[in-house]
Amino acid sequence: MKMTSRIGHRAMAISLLLLLAVLLALASSASAQEGKFFLHVGAGYSIPFLKNLNDELAHQGNAKVDPGYSLGISLGRTFSEMPWSVEAHFSTVYYPDFDYKNTNDSFVGKLRHYNYMAIVRWSVRPEGKLFKPTIGAGLGYGLTNLISGGGKLGAPEGVFTGRIDSEVGGNVDLSFECIYYAGMQSKRFENPFLKNVDTDFIVNNAGDPLEDKFYSLDFRVGITVWLKPRMGQ
User: Fold this and answer.
1) Interval 33-74: pLDDT, tens
2) Which residues contact 181 (CB under 8 A, 6 or more apart)?
3) Does residue 232 have a pLDDT over 50?
4) C-alpha dist (Å) from residue 104 to 66, 127, 193, 210
5) Per-residue b or e along 106-139, where b marks 16 or more CB atoms closer than 10 Å to that residue's CB
6) Cβ atoms of residues 85 and 79 within 8 Å
7) Which domains occur in the chain, in start order?
8) Which of these, 176, 223, 216, 183, lies nearest to 74 by C-alpha position?
């Protein structure tokens, strides 16, 4: 149990260090001429893919995990006279509750997912106004909670994104985005705090630890706000 807790603390430390590294990179590029900071916020629909969890729910006679609602926030900066930008990205997703019940474990599943990413983005038409498509890719860390207070799965993740921005006035763009999050490692759902089971991990119907790899496809509508450059730029 203590070891699992240390793993969780280590994962959070890695996530914070990743965000710090990206923010330092953004700050170091602040002296570039014509570079701009931006804040992007998007909300929408998330379709999860967790094969082993869905197989276990099907074995229990339940439906698979239903799609949920997602929120993503990014702070980024463009580079001078280049179609590239870099951003620190955070997102969270809430999926509908479901019943998890077998001979070993029984609880109400409250699937939640959080990730912390560094994304590099390329603008297809940097000169555009009404139609500004961008594509991006990045790496980071994802944390999936299967139940409130327990059932944690943490692993590195990759992200691929395509977004279309359209200027709607001043320094604000309206955006439509498709994002694919891909877990890079299969992990078991650690369970150090759940009180109604005897093990430190979620158990499937066969009595083995429930392992899985998180994937999701998200669709979001949002806004991009272009922030004023620092004084002296």
Assistant:
1) 456 889 999 999 999 999 999 998 988 887 789 999 999 999
2) 91, 113, 115, 142, 157, 158, 159, 214, 215, 216, 218
3) no
4) 23, 59, 16, 11
5) ebebbbbbebbbbbebebeeeeeeeebebebebe
6) yes
7) 2-28+37-227 (2.40.160.20)
8) 223
